[in-house]
Amino acid sequence: MTRSLLPSLLLTLASAAWAGHCDTARAATPVTAPAPPAYRLEAVIGRTDGLYTVAARTDLALSSEHYGGAHVPDEGHVHLYVNGRLIGPITSAQPLYLPPLTKGDNVVRLVLASNDHVESIYQVATEAHVGVD
Hints:
Blueprint (H helix, E strand, L loop, with lengths): L1 H27 L12 E8 L2 E8 L2 E2 L12 E8 L2 E6 L5 E2 L6 E11 L10 E8 L1
Parallel strand pairs: 3-4
Antiparallel strand pairs: 1-2, 2-6, 4-5, 4-7, 7-8
């Protein structure tokens, strides 16, 4: 009986010692992730000849040259969504015509994306609402 308790006791002591080691290691070296740089993004809605336009104002460097290529820090494009549907990229400060909007409230969403289309790198988005009669 004593022989069968000894391995169990040793395992319990080893587990307790290891758990204490892990707690000490965590307390001694806290891990903090650097905050991603915050970028500004604004959707500017306009109307030209009866058609709606959108322009993206941002301090992220918009790049048509590297669009679709490898990620370059502080550079990318804007993903344009209308009513939840991806319409396409915005790669410059020039306004783009929106597709025909439906009657009622339309949601125009802009999301900063890296050159390789990853939206989670910059984590910046904005929305504008366009009401159509």
